[in-house]
Each structure stands twice: as C-alpha cells, then as structure tokens.
Amino acid sequence: QVQLVESGGGLAQPGGSLRLSCATSGFTFSRYSMNWVRQAPGKGLEWVSAIWRDGSDQSYADSVKGRFTISSDHAKSTVYLQMNNLQPEDTAVYYCAKDSQTTGWKGYYGMDYWGKGTLVIVSS
C-alpha cells in the first residue's frame, strides 16, 4: 500500500534551518509529482511547494520562495524540503502529499495520499 512518512520537524529559532524528509513506498515514485502542504495552528491548508515527477521542475508559494528548496532522491523514493531563514509564521504541521494523476502538477487533479505530518515550530 502507498505510504508517505514525514520526518525532520522540530523547534527552530527565527533565522534557523530545518530539513524535512518524506519517505515514500507503494507506488512508482518517478511517475508522480510530489507536494509539501502545511497547516498553521487554527488555519487552513496552504500549499507550499511541488516537484515534478522527474525532479526537473519545482514550484513554490510566494510565502516561501527564496527560503525553501524542494528536492527528490529517486533512488530512495524520498522528497525533501530544505527550509532556511525560518520565521514564526512558518510554524505549522507540514504534510507530504502525492499528486493523484501522473500528469498532475501542484495538485491540479487532487492529492490522493498524504503523510501524517511533521510539526515545525519556529520560536525564540
């Protein structure tokens, strides 16, 4: 079965860095785009970043552009999110999610599998 398992969350100071990982299994990793989506306390879901199925293209929300970098390792079927210059407004649960269609991009056709999330807290 499809599994997505996030890790790497924790407490960071403003201006600090964290690297999130999402280990996947149960599907052909190279056939689907992958996304990071976050939910801040008391708020709705916010799409953060996406990487095309072969890793050749990346996209970011304006709120994280220039600070976050998405990448993937096809040998490990893992997607990463490097987060630099973290700010308190980045505090959220971060989810990894798979596009539902092989031609999907940034969840255009929906995201059909999600991990359980990893909590990031940015505070001094």
Describe the secondary-structure layout.
Elements: E1 3-7, E2 10-12, E3 18-25, E4 34-39, E5 45-51, E6 58-60, E7 68-73, E8 78-83, E9 92-99, E10 111-114, E11 118-122
Parallel strand pairs: 2-11
Antiparallel strand pairs: 1-3, 3-8, 4-5, 4-9, 5-6, 7-8, 9-10, 9-11
Describe what this molecule looks like in 3D.
The chain has 124 residues and is an all-beta fold. 0% of the residues lie in helices and 49% in strands. It is built from no helices and 11 strands. It has strands spanning 3-7, 10-12, 18-25, 34-39, 45-51, 58-60, 68-73, 78-83, 92-99, 111-114, 118-122. The strands form 2 sheets. Strands 2, 4, 5, 6, 9, 10 and 11 form a 7-stranded mixed beta sheet that branches. Strands 1-3-8-7 form a 4-stranded antiparallel beta sheet, with no helix packed on it. The protein is globular, with a radius of gyration of 13 Å. The N and C termini lie far apart (40 Å).
Brief descriptors of the model:
49% strand, seven-stranded mixed sheet, mainly beta, four-stranded antiparallel sheet, 124 residues
Classify the secondary structure makeup into a structural class. Answer: mainly beta
- The total count of helices amounts to 0
Q: Spans of 5+ residues with little confidence (pLDDT < 50)? A: none
Q: How helical, in percent, are the residues?
A: under 10%
How far from one another are the termini? Answer: 40 Å
Mean pLDDT: 97
Strand fraction band? over 45%
Strand count, sense and barrel status of the largest sheet are: 7 strands, mixed
Order of helices and strands: EEEEEEEEEEE
Radius of gyration using CA atoms only: 13 Å
